[in-house]
Amino acid sequence: MKKIFVNARFLTQRITGVQRFAIEISKILKRELNDDIVFVAPKDIIHKEIAAELNVKIVGHNKSHIWEQIDLRRFLIKNSSPILLNLCNTGPLFYRNNIITIHDIAFEIYPQTYSKKFLITYKYLIPKLAYSAKQIITVSEFSKSEIIKYYNISDNKIHVIYNAVSPEFQQIRNADLEKEKYFLTVSSLNYRKNLNLVLKAFDDLSKTEKDIYLYVVGDLDNRSFSNYDLQKYNLNNRIVFLGRIEDEKLMEYYTSSLAFIYPSLYEGFGIPPLEAQKCEAPVIVSDIPCFHEIFEDSVSYINPHDPIQLTYIMNLHLNYMNRFQQIEKGLDNEKKYDWGKSAKKVLKLLEECER
């Protein structure tokens, strides 16, 4: 195989599911290919330890999309236009020897979720990249069907390669948390994450159940989503906003929770519920196609527009209904997803593109 180049701009971004996919796949590809793979990034890297592990090459002077469109493309052309693997939705537009990863097209379905600048950029870039790329990776059969539907892309051009849970994730018991009864959600003020549903359902439940808590993990920056008003929930002292926390602490919260709640309106995959399953937490998710594909019968499903139903399901979990059966199913389900298997599929695709 000829030398492979990887767009490592993800190392300049905060870690969400998209960046997690890129990081875990990249680590395995580096171990497999060693000097036959080159990771290229702009200078504003924030994940320096990962960059060192990948032996990242810094090129150019620009940042963000401008770096991809100018500096990265120029560097690749100077290096005989090799195959470029893009793992985080975007890549150089006028460079055809591309594999592009499109995790989902939520911006097409829920445009109110995103800033005007983001929408303009993605609505311009993503369709053009999808048409021009040699191959497309996505993370679920559902996302594949959406890409085909919205962009009229050929079925055999799109390859489903699933996410998984980082090897470090495991059950970690915390004696103090074990004394509490609480539900957990990982969210943001992004409209499609549907945090309002959890807050409303728990607020109602807490009026009759006096010894339970809701812990909310995630970045809740009101400046980005002005349609959210958390003020009324601040009055409920049993709703605790934890902000962003380290993975080890997150594992502790997963492990001791009554249930983990993830009521998204739209997802391409959904890593946090899988993390919760690995940490032996029961999981409640929204009744959407993607989650049925990934979780099958290992979770409880709720209507993402019905807080009354969520309150009812939370009450069942409060009383430990079918808890151990769901934990067992969750552990079996999580084992189906493996970064090693996913990386092998990426490697196979790279080999096919070199032929």
Automatic annotation (TrEMBL):
SUPFAM superfamilies hit by this protein: UDP-Glycosyltransferase/glycogen phosphorylase (SSF53756)
Domain of life per record: Bacteria
UniProt keywords, alphabetically: Transferase
InterPro entries given in the database record: Glyco_trans_1, Glyco_trans_4-like_N
Signal peptide positions (record): none
Ranges of residues in domain Glycosyltransferase subfamily 4-like N-terminal: 97-168
Pfam families linked to this entry: Glyco_transf_4, Glycos_transf_1
Domain Glycosyl transferase family, chain residue ranges per copy: 177-308
Name used for this protein in its record: Glycosyltransferase family 4 protein
Organism expressing this protein natively: Chryseobacterium tagetis
